[in-house]
Amino acid sequence: MTQLRNRVSAGLKDAMRNKQAARLSTLRLITAAIKDRDIATRAEGVTEGASDAEVLQILGKMVKQRQESARAYEEGGRLELAEKERAEILVLEEFLPRQLGEAEVEAAIATAIEEAGAESIRDMGKVMGALKSKYTGQMDFGAVGPQVKARLG
């Protein structure tokens, strides 16, 4: 079992013991998403289940989904549902690594471009691959992509 998976499992047990219903619900959603990924990897012939990197991707995706839902609820005037989504985001973020600041993201992009030897927009895939392998869960790649493109373009 991976380290991240162990932390989620321990959090789930604590939430049960402390009767934290909202937190427990979110942790069960995380566990279900991880198990879904395990089943998918088994179909591909991998027996040990999802890695920590895959779990980070799952968590990142779950955070993004909740951010979009919270925005939609706010626009629709459903503030109580938007708050529920934000509460789930807080629980999810407990298991994600610290997000990099703007200056740290800039430095990471510069380093990745240099290490990849990127010179033009055609090298963008190499740079993004390097960033994803090193900083999964620590930066928003949707926002980083245009920055990399601007540097290489």
What does this structure look like?
This protein is mostly helical. The chain is 76% helix and 0% strand. It has helices at 3-17, 21-43, 52-75, 79-93, 102-116, 124-135, 141-152. α1 runs antiparallel to α2 (21-43), α2 (21-43) packs across α3 (52-75) and α5 (102-116) crosses α6 (124-135). The longest helix is centred in the middle third of the chain and has 24 residues, at 52-75. The chain is globular. It starts with a helix and ends with a helix.
SSE arrangement, N to C: HHHHHHH
Give me the Rg, rounded.
18 Å
Cα separation of the termini: 43 Å
Given the structure, what is the number of helices? 7
Residue-averaged pLDDT, rounded? Answer: 89
Question: What is the count of β-strands?
Answer: 0
Which blocks of ≥5 consecutive residues have pLDDT under 50?
Answer: none
Helix and strand content put the structural class at mainly alpha
Overall shape: globular
Sheet having the most strands:
none
Percentage of β-strand residues = under 5%
The level of helicity is: over 70%
